[in-house]
Amino acid sequence: MSYPPARYLGESGETSGIFRPGGQEPDLRMSATPDGTQVHYLGTGASTNGAFGLYRWEMGPRPGGPSPHFHRTITESFYVLSGSIRLYNGVKWADGAPGDFLFLPEGGIHAFCNESGEPATMLILFTPGAPREGYFEELADINVSGRQLSDEEWTELYLRHDQYMV
Questions:
Q1: For the chain, counts of helices (H) and of strands (E)
Q2: Over 90: is that where the pLDDT of 47 sits?
Q3: E strand or H helix at 140, and its extent?
Q4: Which of 29, 73, 96, 112 makes a 20 to 30 Å CA pair with 120?
Q5: Which secondary structure element, helix H or strand E, spans residue 158, and what is its range?
Q6: What is the CATH number of domain 28-165?
Q7: In this structure, are residues 116 and 59 in contact, taking their beta carbons and an 8 Å threshold?
Q8: What residue spans define the domains of the chain?
Q9: Region 62-70: what's the mean pLDDT?
Q10: Shortest CA distance to 27 belongs to which of 46, 12, 8, 6?
């Protein structure tokens, strides 16, 4: 394995780092309830020039998470920071504890959920940096508004966002 082609061709470097304090308010609330999932956009595809997307996913105590699915264009990784998060690797479910990590290459079937009854937090990393914020924001809007989508509308939403349900 070797380094990829250079993406920066300057000679002296530049001052371009972005600092995000840990105490910032979440960028997105996935439900109207105060104990629902909150999402922090740590690094978006736009802010990382397409290199990756990194999100802190703070799940409330109520059960929730996506059904098994895969992506064709992006990898996805999960790193448990606190609590207990059930992680599915396409074969079996495991109770993820702080420090546990799951990587899924393109096409890797996966899911996650918090069934512990306690809050839990993880990092989610997508490579390359796809515009996942749009997908999360659409899901949040659907959840908060109570809007019901038809099967065809769900299929269209998933296809637009590289989400293939199994």
A1: 2, 11
A2: yes
A3: helix 132-145
A4: 73
A5: helix 151-160
A6: 2.60.120.10
A7: no
A8: 28-165
A9: 94
A10: 46
Q: Which amino acid is at 138?
A: E
The amino acid that residue 50 corresponds to is G
Degrees, nearest 5: CA angle 48-53-54 = 110
d(Cα 43, Cα 89) in Å, to the nearest integer? 24
Contacting residues for 122 by C-beta, under 8 A, at least 6 apart: 56, 57, 59, 78, 79, 80, 81, 85, 96, 112
20 Cβ contact list (under 8 Å, min separation 6): 42
> Any idea how long the chain is?
166
User: At residue 34, does pLDDT exceed 90?
Assistant: no
Considering Cα of 27, then 123, then 53, then 143, what sign does the dihedral take? negative
Residue 107, Ramachandran bin (φ over 0: left; ψ between -120 and 50: alpha; else beta): left
In this prediction the pTM is 0.94
Q: Which residues pair with 41 in a beta bridge?
A: 55
Contacts of 62 (CB under 8 A, 6+ apart): 33, 35, 36, 114
Most distant CA atoms of the chain, gap in Å = 54
Tokens of 1: 């394995």
Backbone phi and psi for residue 75, each to the nearest 5 degrees, phi listed first? -90, 160
* pLDDT of 45 above 90: yes
In whole angstroms, give the CA distance from residue 125 to residue 52: 7
Residue 32 has pLDDT above 90, yes or no: no
Q: Residue 145: phi, psi to the nearest 5?
A: -80, -20
